[in-house]
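[agent] plan:
  1. take the single chain provided in the ticket
  2. run structure prediction with default settings
  3. attach structure tokens to the ticket
  4. add a short note for the reviewer (M.T.)
[agent] executing step 1
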Amino acid sequence: MAKNLKELRAENPELADALMAEARAEATASASGSGTQAPAAETGTQAQATGEPADTTAAVDAERKRIQDIDALAGLYDADTIREAKYGPNACTAQEMTYRAAQKASQQGKKFLTNLEADNGDSGAQKVSASAAGSENGEGAEPTTPEGKMAKARASVKELFKKDKKEE
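[agent] step 2 finished; step 3 output follows
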């Protein structure tokens, strides 16, 4: 990251020229006694008064808007994504940054699901029964077959009738 104008010109000459044009325009505006910067609608007139081409001022305004749009989304994305969109070799608009981030998240989601399925298969969790180990047909275990359930019901009915006869 450039720390002075010389380094900025070496890294990004277009941005350096745009910033210099903006500084000249502000200096001219303050020297003329206005004390305030011209509104965005008057930037073409202001550029002509300072001798700068109108397209340079438009480029500065477009770059400023691009950076502001990216900054508005900074809370949604990681710092690397924001920095890459602003200053990286493939600098882009906020819309392009959002699209790239969505593609990256989609790829990460697919990878996560693939890894999750592999981990589930490797763990053997699907082979584990819901009942306690060793009590498949032992004491206190619920029967799993229809015949076992019927046998348990008959035993319960016998117990019930034995109790009724004892009470009489």
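[agent] step 4 note for reviewer: The helical segments are 5-11, 13-31, 43-50, 54-72, 79-87, 94-123, 146-167.
[agent] ticket updated
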